[in-house]
Amino acid sequence: MVVMTQRHMLHWRYRVLRGLGLGMEPSxxxxxxxxxxxxSGITKAFPGVIANSDVGFKVAPGEIHAxxxxxxxxxxxxxxxIYGILKPDSGSIxxxxxxxxxxxxxxxxxxxIGMVFQHFSLFEAMTVLExxxxxxxxxxxxxxxxxxxxxxxxxxxxxxxxxAREVHTLSVGERQRIEIVRCLLQSPxxxxxxxxxxxxxxxxxxxxxxxxxxxKSEGCSILYISHKLNEIKELCDGATILRGGKVVAAxxxxxxxxxxxxxxxxxxxxxxxxxxxxGKDAGPVRMELKALSMAPEMAHGVPLKSINLSLRGGEILxxxxxAGNGQGDLLAAIAGERKAATAGAVVMDGKPVGxxxxxxxxxxxxxxxxxxxxxxxxxPDMSLTDNAMLxxxxxxxxxxxxxxDTAKSRSFAAEVIxxxxxxxxxxxxxxxxxxxxxxxxxxxxxxxxxxxxxxxxAQPTWGVDAAAAATIQQALVDLAATGxxxxxxxxxxxxxxxxxxxxxxxxxGQVSEAMPAATVSVEEIGLLMGGIHGTPEKGxx
Amino acid sequence: MNIDTLLPMLLTVIAAATPLLLAAIGELVxxxxxxxxxxxxxxxxxxxxxxFAVTVGTGxxxxxxxxxxFAGIALSLVFGLLTxxxxxxxxxxxxxxxxxxxxxxxxxxSSYIGTPVEKLAVLHIPGLSDIPVLxxxxxxxxxxxxxxxxxxxxxxxxxxxxxxxxxxxxxGESDLSAHSIGYDVxxxxxxxxxxxxxxxGIAGAYLSLSYTPMWVEGMTAGRGWIALALxxxxxxxxWRVLGGAYIFGGVTILQLYLQGAGGIGIPAQVMNMLPYxxxxxxxxxxxxxxxxxxxxxxxxxxxxxxxxx
Amino acid sequence: xxxxxxxxxxxxxxxxxxxxxxxxxxxxxxxxxxFMMLGADPFEALYVFFISPLETKYGLSELGVKAAPLIMIxxxxxxxYRANIWNIGAEGQLTLGAVCGGAVALAFWEEQGxxxxxxxxxxxxxxxxxxxxxxxxxxxxxxxxxxxTSLMLTYVATLFLAVLVFGPLKDPMGFNFPQSRMFSDSxxxxxxxxxxxxxxxxxxxxxxxxxxxxLLTRSIIGFQIRTLGSAPAAARYAGFDRTRLTxxxxxxxxxxxxxxxxxxxxxxxxxxxxxxxxxxxxxxxxVAFLGRLHPLGIIASGLLMALSYMGGENAQINLSLPQAVxxxxxxxxxxxxxxxxxxxxxxxxxxxxxxxxx
Lengths: 541, 309, 358
Hints:
The complex is a heterotrimer of chains A (541), B (309) and C (358).
Chain A: H1 2-23, E1 37-46, E2 49-59, E3 64-68, H2 75-82, E4 90-95, E5 98-100, H3 105-111, E6 113-116, H4 128-134, H5 143-156, H6 172-184, E7 190-194, H7 202-217, E8 221-226, H8 229-235, E9 238-243, E10 246-251, H9 258-266, E11 285-294, E12 304-312, E13 316-320, H10 327-335, E14 346-348, E15 351-352, H11 358-363, E16 366-369, H12 384-392, E17 399-400, E18 403-404, H13 406-419, H14 436-448, E19 454-458, H15 466-481, E20 485-489, H16 493-499, E21 502-507, E22 510-511, E23 515-516, H17 522-529
Parallel strand pairs in A: 3-8, 3-9, 6-7, 7-8, 13-20, 13-21, 16-19, 19-20
Antiparallel strand pairs in A: 1-2, 1-4, 4-5, 9-10, 11-12, 11-14, 14-15, 17-18, 21-22, 21-23
Chain B: H1 3-32, H2 40-58, H3 61-85, H4 90-109, H5 134-139, H6 143-161, H7 163-173, H8 175-180, H9 185-211, H10 223-233, H11 238-260, H12 268-272, H13 274-288
Helix pairs in contact in B: 1-6, 1-9, 1-10, 1-11, 2-3, 2-4, 2-9, 2-10, 3-4, 3-9, 6-7, 6-11, 7-9, 10-11, 10-13, 11-13
Chain C: E1 2-7, H1 13-37, H2 42-51, H3 57-82, H4 90-107, H5 116-142, H6 146-166, H7 201-218, H8 220-230, H9 232-238, H10 242-269, H11 280-290, H12 295-319, H13 325-340, H14 342-345, E2 346-351
Antiparallel strand pairs in C: 1-2
Keywords (chain B): Cell membrane, Membrane, Transmembrane, Transmembrane helix
Main location (chain B): membrane
GO molecular function, one term (chain B): transmembrane transporter activity
């Protein structure tokens, strides 16, 4: 056992070194120095799952090192241990060649580690200044001086910020700047970035990369966590690939192709979705939004502004956009979870339904899959049988008088489990105990097996492993082939480009004209995502 | 109405407002950290009876007040243990604390019913207290009245200007964020809950040592709940809590005076309903009104938090 | 060896039904020490408190008398709490029910007939429901917190009852005591056990529990209530109407509490007096939780809480301990229950410390 482990480690060390040596800048003394960060044998287990198993890699000074892996590979768990939020069960962390214990984020910052979180660690109702101060261990007493420093640092790195603004008034990209500036003020020697581009427009990604390269040139190391292969090829000097919590390979991303890295990441042949050809001259209009406007539900949200959209039978229409631009309210307005001001704002098959509730719209043939699985699309504490009851009881007739016909919903749940390959002990298992991918397959399956005329899906494969994602995407394509109309709201542009016939973009509560997916350019979509045509709330300059 | 009748009336308003202010300012700090403790009424009752018992036993009101503060803290720790460590539902636990407090206080107090105690002494400040009208109004109170205002000032400063206050607000705003940048959410919340307990205990002490210097079962008469309503009414701002407490004190006293003034034919019990009805009306106005006070509520209020380890 | 706390992936049903027993056991242990502190012989005191009430016909019948209102109210509360609707003003709704039922009894004071009791019951239910309609209206219309409104209304209700018995409903022949006339025989509940006070209300409470169980577990409304409480966003997704469910739960609790109030004045009390209930509306909160918000569990926990009232009385009579012991017991029981609930969602495991390093 021990021997095996050591051999394994030697193997990856060799590969890391080879990868680094080939990828570094010319003036690179780093290989001879101690690596800035070196992990070895890191293991971390949670109940029922081993998140990290014997993970090790090195990051050299001034290196941008990628941590690559698909959803659930254990990347976030790993970096939380580097930042002192989680404690490894075993293994060691070496900092500048010295073994260190990182019991808390304070200790991590004291070493010179900064972290930019995927789900930001920000406080919406507070100002930029307060947010920055909270993320520093010694911000000083003088708030005016700190505000000045924030302005200076943020501008010198091309990340302008107004310290007095409250966070909820800022765009997602601007919020990320706070996290970055907060790290920069503490002169980090290693910056950890967890999926930083998932919430950015393509243009913002470009700007972020400039900042990161500037940091690199100043000698700061960067640990860059992502599952986006092209970004890693463009930006990173070395890469460690995680699968199922283990290091499966180390490579130089510039030498690999996106496809070869994808195979290492997924561990199987890349399965692509089989699109049907032809039938693109879609059927009749099934659903229309006419000048749909709505105030935001959340205290700090954006309002929907006069949205027009039409969806035809047999087509998949994608709606791209950065998180927090009104997607949640748009789905709620279509599903009937929130009612429109006028019945005519939402039209299904020529029928105004804007004032109807979700149950009535479902009866007319509209099924939906919300973004949040636990607690919205499913009740975590209830069984799969009950969760089948949840959305299908009317449409599928699981009621007798005012009473539940549990036998029927149980057999329906069993069918969903079978047809969509949901891995679960049975229909009486609580939904909350399923893994993300399996629960998503259950929810999507539950809606699709109700044979919807119109299906609206938000983030169909968010946080789902590649195999489950492929199953779900294929199911959507197959459903469209039967003539149903499908609307997919997603932040994942690649997914939309794969699935959709047409793509529209939502930004600041407005939805653009839908464009044919075959001909539209990523740049064009990116500009729309960034709101080039007159956003009301432009960030502080 | 001349100054001779107005002055005692204003003094009673201050007396009626003080326990509300003390309890509400403590609960405000608790809620700012994201914890909803509905056990204020119970903690006040136990504070009241402990203060009374210790004062009778030792002859020292100061010891009584200190004991009440510790009793409040002890009860708040039970609440903290259940909700913060054992993740129990905050609403249910708060109710349990109140039920428990009612029981414990009447158990301890059963032997003190009818026992007299000397009313908490007025702090006489030579010179200032002797100024006509203003003297008694501003400088003619017992120590807890001053303490209630001082605590309000301190809390206002603490939340607005201190780093610890910033961290406390951050924990109430987003426990996940605070945890991920390295703050001990549970510890901060324990401290905030304990401060709430301390204030509630002292508020109870004021009732049994100064407001009506005796022990009566259930003598808080819903003041703990009114204090909870005050925090929402004040949109979680200390200065507004002060204002709200004095308005409610005014309502309480107004009905007493109306009764005293011949009752206008209205039964006393109807007049006694006033503070409770006023609470309902105020809550309705702030919930329905254009200010939408609840938007100011700490975002994590009442939500349980347990970090992965 | 070290202890590690882990979240369970799925709540433990076994623990869910075990925790009330754990809580009762812990309360008895704590009670042992409490009695010791109060200077009583703890074994004798526990015997007097928990066992002796069950040894006599009187004790057993009184158990039913006291359990009836607790069970009825707790059924309604449990449905509400399942849906995250925190009505804590059942005491006020009980009072209004007693007032309305009692008013009917007094209005038909000189009449006789089988119609009087049903009419009183209807009036009582209507009164309780109408009173619960106030927080329901404020909650659904203005989003006012129902915890505070329902509780404030309890204080108002008690004062309202006082206004009536000190005023318009005072017995004209009652030497100015603040109480109404005694109700006529037609307005008094039938006794179901000879020579005791056990009345038909106990049977009604049991029926209410069974009906509540069917409603909660088998009906679509029960499913909606469970969903709303467990995952409000999912309830909205399914199209369950939160406003309607809020009204339903509050009105149902109000009606049941009102009925319980009517039964109190038409049963054991027999007239309107300033103090109708020894806090049944509040104790029912504990009954609901201890019964795991499950209607059948509530029958058991209702009987247990009734026992704690009896035990308090017995302890006062036989050991001259203060009756407030009852309240302390009830509070402790709820605390222990909430604490042991931790075991439903988490488990404590022994773990061997892992060897450090590679």
